Amino acid sequence: MRTIHIAASREYDVVIGRGLLGELGSRAAEVLRGRSCAVVSDSNVAPIYMEATLASLRAAGFAAEPYVIPAGEASKCGRVYLELLNFLAEKKLTRADALIALGGGVVGDLTGFAAATYLRGVDFVQIPTTLLACVDSSVGGKTAIDLSAGKNLVGAFYQPNLVLCDLDALDTLPEAVFADGCAEVIKYGMLGSAELLDRLAERHAREQLEYVVAKCVEMKRDVVEGDEFDTGRRQLLNLGHTFAHAIEASSDYAIPHGRAVAMGMDVITRAAVRKGLCPAECLTILEKLLAAHGLPLRTDCSAETLASLALSDKKRKGGTITLVVPERYGESGLHTVPVGELIDWAQAGLEA
Q1: Dihedral of CA 105/260/310/70: which sign?
Q2: CB 76 within 8 A of CB 60
Q3: Residue extents of the structural domains in the chain
Q4: 275-292: per-residue pLDDT in tens?
Q5: Architecture of domain 187-350 in CATH?
Q6: Beta carbons of 8 and 159 less than 8 angstroms apart
Q7: d(CA 60, CA 34)
Q8: pTM to 2 decimals?
Q9: What is the CATH number of domain 2-172?
Q10: Which positions ≥6 away from 199 have C-beta within 8 Å?
C-alpha cells in the first residue's frame, strides 16, 4: 500500500492499494466532519460496488444515501447536475455532510462539481474505479460538467478530502476501459518521465499497477502543488488533450476519452516531429506503447474539424492557444501559438 500526501489548498491523502473499499468507513470518519453522506455512482459501477461501499460507511456510523446516474459522458451535463443537487436538498444534507464519488471520471467530475457548489461547498471523497480516474481525474481538484459547445467548460477547482484507489476495482474492468487509462499513463511518461516509458516498454501497465498508479499520482502531485489553479506548468498535464477533446466532440462522445487522448497525443507528436521540434524516435516509441496497450494511433477527423472544434478548448486565451508539445524522450513543453496556426498543426499531425 502507498499513501501520497497532496499539499494543496486543502491537504489530503491519496491511498493506493488492494482491499481498501472495506476501509472506506473508518478512513472517511477520520477526515469528514459529519456522519451523513450521499454516494454517487453510475449504472455500470453501482451494481458491483455500491452495496460494499454503503456497508463500510454504515458500519462506521454514517447515514449513507445511494444515488445512481446513467453511465457515460452524456451524464456530465447541466440537467444531471441539477437533478443531483435537488436530490441532496431533498435528503437534507447539510454543510457538515459529504459527497462520495464511486466511479470513473464522469462520476468524479460531476460529483466534485456538485460538492463544490452545493451549499457553497461540502466535503468530498473520491473512490476511482477506473485506471484513468486513479492516475488522473480523481487527483488535483478539477471538477466540471460539459456544455454543448465543449467539454469541461463549467467547473471549479475543489480538492477532495480523501482519494481511495482500491486496485481490486481495476481487475473487473473490461480491457477496452483499462486501455483508456493506459493512455493517460503513457501521457505522464511522455510529458516528464523517461523511467515510466522504459518500464512500460518492458512490462504492460496491468503487470505493475501499484507502481504505475503511484508514479502518475506523484507526478501530478508535484505539478498541482506548484500550480494548483492551472495558470502555468499544470497545463502540461493536457498533453494530447486539445485535439483529444475535438476528437471526442466530433464523435458526439462515442469515442472514449482515453482513446481520444491516444489519438490526440499521436497528432501533436507527429506535428512536433514534422516541425523539427521533437526527434522522430519519440513518435516511434509513443506509437509502440499505444499499440502494446491496445490503443489507436490515428484519427479519421480532418484537420479542419480538429482545428475548428479545438477552438472551444479551455486553454485558448483570446487569439492564442497553448499546446503541450513533446520535445524529447520523456519531456514536453508548452508552446503558445496563434489560433490561426492551429489548422497547420492539425495538418502536420495527420500527415502519413
Answers
A1: negative
A2: no
A3: 2-172, 187-350
A4: 999 999 999 999 999 999
A5: Up-down Bundle (1.20)
A6: yes
A7: 12
A8: 0.94
A9: 3.40.50.1970
A10: 208, 211, 212
